[in-house]
Amino acid sequence: MIIVASDKFKGTYPAGDICRIIADRFSAAGEEILVMPMADGGEGTASILGAINGMSLTKIDGYNPFGGKMEWELYTDETKAALDSAAIVGRVATRDILAPMSATSFYLGRLVGSLIAAGKREIWIGVGGTMTTDGGCGFLQGLGWEMIDYNGKLIDSPMTPANLIEIHKIIPHPLPSGIKLFGLMDVDVPMLPDTNRPERLSALSFAHQKGVKDAELSLLAYDLEHFVNLAEDAVKELECHYPSHYCGAGGGLGFALQVAGGTALQGANYIWQNYLHPSHIPDSEISRIYTGEGCFDAQSLRGKVTGMLIDYGHKHDIPVTVICGRNTFTGELPDNVEIITLHNFLHNIV
Asked: Is 176 in a helix, a strand, or coil?
């Protein structure tokens, strides 16, 4: 059996479309194929979660990271909801405006709070593809956490990187009893560079692509550290224990979701296991895995769909073919892995 399990090709093909393109090459030859559109926490995660759990598309009026009106799309049933942070605070929501120092995750927190108030007991958030770098402070504020300034007054305006330094104290508000909040993370990096992690990646590593200028980077690092220290102090009495993993995902949403009491999961692995286990397919019956993404690079091995399936194939002795729009990876890969561009794949160019 061939498994086709590709992520989206960002800006060109949704995961479902690229999976069908790949699968069509083998269906004509009579190969047994199982198609599994994938996501890692970025765009398209909520639609896949919705399909797995039988949730319906819901559209509601909302706000972009600058407070402008927009329409939100998410997936819901009577007790559950799934949404992409990318749809609320990502590039589409910002309309390609690069203004990260004034962008907030506040309205994402507001949305989660309103879902809880509407009776949703289980909320899934795809954490990836964001254009915010506020450390998730706005998200916590949207959930009801109080940010107090140095004059002892409540900060009413949505938190952004530009006003994190104004916080003197944070008053937390735990999630209501019985609420389960999950974040599917697209990358495993800390909020700030960690000397114990040799690759030195962090939330700051993705700041430039969101529009943060070189001159702003050191100030952003200082402000995020200030916020993290205050948030950690705030939750000490709540017995909230969160790991260092995934805290830098989504510009810090990974950190905020966990201090709020949520659970962080590797997005690609969670979706893969929820496809694979119900299908009852033994590894011995899988002849090859075809996966893919728009650009295959060093970040692909840090929680992305392709990296997760490369690891899975290596562990279970299954050959893996990665199909990509562009390949900039220069490191070493297991012998069971081949990389091919979509153009060469479609034209049988080896």
From this structure: coil
